[in-house]
Amino acid sequence: MSKPKSFKARKFKDPQKALDAITEIYDANTAYLQERFRLFTKEKPDVERASACYPYVKVTTKVARRADSRFSYGFVPKPGTYTTTVTRPDIFDRYYHKQLELLIHNHDVSVEVGVSDTPIPVHFALGENFHLERDLSAEQIQELPQIFDVPNLDVMDDEIANATYRVEEGKPGPLSLFTAPRVDLSLQRLKHYCGSDSHHFQNYVIFTNYQFYIDEFIKIGKSKAKTASYSGFVGPVDSKRTPQMPAYHLKRKDGSGITMINIGVGPSNAKTITDHVAVLRPHAWLMLGHCAGLRSSQNLGDYVLAHGYLREDHILDKDLPLSIPVPALAEIQVALEASVAQVTGESGFDMKKVMRTGTVATTDDRNWELRSFIKQNRRLSQSRAIAMDMESGTIAANGFRFRVPYGTLLCVSDKPLHGNLKLPGMADSFYRERVEQHLQIGLMAMTMLRELSPEKIHSRKLRSFNEVAFQ
């Protein structure tokens, strides 16, 4: 077997030097695989099997402590050894630097960096813009697994995030929610679904279920990109193909800009995209979309701030049982409510004229209105639900599951239980009147959250008593 350059494990108390070592290993090993792949494509008969592995980070501590008990991450839960594989330092350099810095600071120990025994699949070493099916012959694709490592789903599950991972006797515990192959898989999927390279994604993400919001975001984003606060505006890179869930990025140099994604309709789409955005470790994600108002006192165009979710989407039932509560996060709620007040001009008790706070029911049935009136109303009444949609509960539940701060602000577009159905003419009028204001509220909320430090946004409500150290 052909092997890449060897690296000895090294220990560091300087997070930048540790990051440099990660980068050196990753760059050398991916460059080796890229070169071996180049030889393979020339159909040389003597090409040897080639394999190279991800870098790892490891820490061993005899004391479990943290310098500031208000932090929800940056420390291990108990004495022992912990490790994780890492990837793409070109994207995660700031993230890795911060996590390593906190570990060193909290535990006063060195971090070890070396080469793991987890192979880098050649698909991931080639990057997001290489397509094997297009660039290789059928014979080469068939021969590929004999020469290179290919993606292995056995090391790409979400057991750590789901709290079902069990550490074998004498083995290190996990440092991160995601292994390197799991991260790389999601980076590839984001390019596929969103049409954007992963380095464009920002730390504050807005999901929507209507193109109207994207059209408005493009207009606002292009304008704001010309100001000193932002560094550019980027959309899908392939103008010939509209991606399934197009993403647009209002960028800042430090990654603290805003990404907006049109996820389309339904909880399956909501789970799909948040499964993959989660590996980027954003500081917050919000759902801005439309909903059915369930109360007669609501008017079309009123806002709904979710403080609880009736989860009837069923898409996450196995990963996050319905018995698990999904709490509202104070930092997100405060930012959203303050943004509504500032944009609408209402405040205090008068806010009730334009917004209700309560439970949002999320369903997987697009035609939920056609169910038995008596049977359906009982469940909605028991839950005190004030709105119905198809994505918010899923996005919040996956935020809770992946420790990503989440929030929901919806806009009432119809009231089917009270005779106001979403008909074409009425909907068009509503869209024209409300989309711009709704989006301005969401953008202002993200700006307010950005002004907080990440340590304040990442609530301790999202962390368990036996949690990984990385945010």
What does this molecule look like?
- The chain has 471 residues and is an alpha/beta fold.
- Helix content is 37%, strand content 19%.
- The chain has two domains: 10-187, amp nucleosidase, domain 1 (2-Layer Sandwich); 196-462, Nucleoside phosphorylase domain (Rossmann fold, 3-Layer(aba) Sandwich), CATH 3.40.50.
- The protein contains 13 helices and 14 strands.
- Helix 1 (15-41) runs antiparallel to helix 2, helix 8 runs parallel beside helix 11 (392-402) and helix 9 (330-344) packs across helix 12 (424-451).
- The two termini are 37 Å apart.
Largest sheet: 5 strands, mixed
Order of SSEs, N→C? EHEEHEHHHEHEHEEEHEEHEHEHEHH
Number of helices: 13
Helix/strand-derived class?
A: alpha/beta
Straight-line N-to-C gap = 37 Å
Count of DSSP strands: 14
Helicity level, as a percent range? 25-40%
- As a percent range, the share of strand residues is 15-25%
Name of the level-1 CATH class of the largest domain: Alpha Beta
Principal-axes geometry comes out as globular
CATH fold description of the largest domain: Rossmann fold
Say which CATH homologous superfamily of the largest domain is assigned. Answer: Nucleoside phosphorylase domain
Number of domains: 2
* Average pLDDT metric: 91
